[in-house]
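Mods, move this if it's the wrong board.
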Amino acid sequence: MQQKSVITDVLDIAYLENGPPDGWPCILGHGFPYDVHAYAEAAPLIAQAGARVLVPYLRGYGPTRFRSATTLRSGEQAALGADLLAFMDALGVARAVVGGYDWGGRAACVVSVLHPERVSGLVSGNSYNIQNIARSMEPASPPEEAALWYQYLFHNERGRRALERNRRGFARQLWSMWSPRWAFDDAIFERSAASFDNPDFVDVVIHSYRHRYALVAGDPAYAGIEATLASQPPICVPTIAIDGDSDGVNPGTAHHARKFEGFFEHRVFAGAGHNLPQERPTEWAQAVLDVREAAERSAA
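Not the wrong board. Structure tokens:
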């Protein structure tokens, strides 16, 4: 994949591109704490089917940079969605298959909700990935609460210092816990870990995990988007949602089906954890191709 960059109002977004420049557009987003290399194997498979596959580094990751020192280093869901839409606009992509997991999946869900005319199909890790911030203080089951330990740590300054001082250690711990059956090696981890050296990584991550619990204010520039997302609107574009049956942070999202209208299919990747496209690249690529086919059938 070739690394490129594009300028938006807020960010200089670095991204990897694979496939013919006139191919059908497919944009895939990575999660925390991962990076664009989550699609190192899946993207070429999709490109072989004629796609122009674009994989941006999210704000706070890799070579992506904020254009102004005064911009709030927000990690809120509205900002991630706005970044994805701005990325599409900057590249002149009118409509695309979008997908992702974790933060990247959240951005794809946000754009699918707010701008369905820009999305031909959605592949979403962990299904309906839009946060219900108004209900963020409602407790979950003890096992689910235990899996979110890192989020609660990030709510205080001890957590900020811990992440700042040992970004790789935290990320590797989460990789191991969230994907217990994924036998990644040092080289695979270090390839992605370099993205955590971004100077805004800690600020964006900490803001994300505080904002989703309404502990800090969001960026006023995205207040309108957050207000719309607060109603938990349904997703109407053709969607394939995916869970891993060995996901150490998410116990499964089959119950999210009611949040989707139109074509919807829920898949479970056997033996996979949280990092779905990197653990199961062939199955992920097939999901992208399948949702595109379903979208074409619906349009016909």
